[in-house]
Amino acid sequence: MRKPMIAGNWKMNKTIPQAVEFTKELVGLTTGTKAEVVLCPAFTTLPAVVEAARGTNIAVGAQNLHWEESGAFTGEISAVMLKDTGCRYVLVGHSERRQYFGEIDETVNKKVKAALKYELLPIICVGETLQQREAGSTEQLVGNQIKAALEGLDAETVSKLIVAYEPVWAIGTGKTASDTDAQKVIAYIRSVIQTQVGVYAEAVRILYGGSVKPANITGLMSQPDIDGALVGGASLEAASFAGIIQGV
Question: Each residue of 207-235: pLDDT tens digit?
C-alpha cells in the first residue's frame, strides 16, 4: 500500500521568518492527515523549517543538489550539506532546473545517486513541454527521462524512490491535465519502471505536479496510479496547501 504524499515546492520564495510562520501554521491545519507532507523551501531556510517541523507530520526536502560531495562549485550545495540540515528529501531534475539551468538526464542520474549515498530520498521530476505533447512524443520523452534517472540502481533502491510527473505546459499556467490524462501518463511511467525492476515498481510513489489546487486534488487522487502531488504556487499559502492535503 503506497502512502500518499503531498510535497510543496516553494521555489525562490519566503524569508526565514515567513518560512517558520508558515510551517507552524500548517502544522495546526494538517493534524491527523493520512498523507505524508513534505516542504521544499529555499536553501537559506532549511534549518529553520526543519526545526519548526520537528516532532510533527511534516518532513523537509531541498530543491536541488550537486552530485559531488565538495569542491570548486560556486553557488552549489551537496548531499552531505543537505543531510546536515536535517533534510529527508530532495527534488531532482525539476523542469525549471532543466529549462533554465542546463539540467540533463545524465546529471539527474548523478544527483539521484549522490542523494541516495547520504540517505536522502530523491523526488525525481519528469515531464514534457506543450510542443512535445502536441507532437505526440510524451511517452517517449518521459520514458527516456525515467530510464536515465534510474540507470545503475537496483530494484530495492528504486522501490523507495518518488517520481513526480510534471507536464511543463501545466506549471504555473492554471492549466491542469485532466484526471484521466494524468493517470494515463503516470501509469505509463510505472510500466517503464516495471520493465526495469519488475514488481518493485508497485512500491514507487508517483506524484502529479502541474497547477494542483484544493479543487482538483480529489479527482487526481481517485486515479489508481496517482499517489499524491508536487505543488508549486498553491503551496505558498498555508490554507490553500492544507486544503490540498485534506483532499487526499
Answer: 999 889 999 999 999 999 999 999 999 99
